[in-house]
Amino acid sequence: MDKVVPSATDAVADIADGASLAVGGFGLCGIPSVLIQALLDAGVTDLEAVSNNCGVDDWGLGLLLRDKRIRRMVSSYVGENKEFERQYLSGELEVELTPQGTLAERLRAGGSGIPAFYTATGVGTQVADGGLPWRYDDAGNVVTASPPKETRDFETADGTKGFVLEQAIVTDFGLVRAWRGDRHGNLVFRDSARNFNPLCAMAARVTIAEVEELVEPGDLDANGVHLPGVYVQRVLALTAEQATDKRIEKRTVRPRGGQG
Question: Which domains does the chain have, with CATH numbers?
């Protein structure tokens, strides 16, 4: 039952080239930065990453992207990552852009054993009809586009509406970060870091969690556990320095005295 591993290197040792990863976090909040760095150091490449976004140019998944370790991204937001945009538009990276709520539900469905589900999001657009550019060539021509998806009408309280079938996501590995966790893999996330982390953990066949504070079994209030240990196979306890090394994507300040 003790799932604690001695180092980040050991935690990611069996992640091979070509693996698929579900990576928690939103922007730079709650990202498993230590595990991502270990993957970078290990030289793993040709990865398919499923994450809300791809970090920034010098942090998070942006580090793997910078070194051309990611072959394909499934995400909702290009965001502030200029290298992400450059690689996508120049044909170096395949990108499946997915509505954010749909991405969250695809991950949750994957972890719940639900193969697919219908949603109204995207009906009447290229999300359902197909044709979203997944990959360009170096001349800016679309060489791979999304296929059309099955649609179906359902009776709702507001009348008959169209829905599109979205497939669940299941990945080889999941990388997540938690505020507290015990040796059995039970995890608690703090505030907005409880974003895509539980969903990515659920969707992976093997989930690796880096935790800022490791506690003993029984120390966590069972009613406060956000993700049960059944979804987690490995736990990495962070050092105090690693736990406090967090980045802020954009700083906003206001004048002293509340002016403005």
Answer: 8-115+169-244 (3.40.1080.10), 116-167 (no CATH)
**Cα–Cα distance list, 194 to 70, 143, 171, 191 (Å):** 25, 37, 20, 6
Query: Which are the contacts of 255, defined by CB distance < 8 A and separation ≥ 6?
Result: none
Amino acid at 142: V
Q: Does pTM surpass 0.85?
A: yes
Distance separating alpha carbons of residues 164 and 104, to the nearest angstrom: 16
Tally of CA atoms within 13 A in the half-sphere of 20 that contains its CB? 14
Buried b (16+ CB within 10 A) or exposed e, 198-221: bbbbbbbeebbbbbbbbeeeeebe
Task: Write a three-state SS string for 168-181.
Answer: CCCEEEEEEEEEEE
Q: What is the mean pLDDT of each run of 10 residues along the chain (260 residues)?
A: 96 98 93 97 98 90 96 89 92 96 97 98 96 95 97 96 98 98 98 94 98 97 96 97 87 71
Q: What was the pLDDT predicted at 242?
A: 94
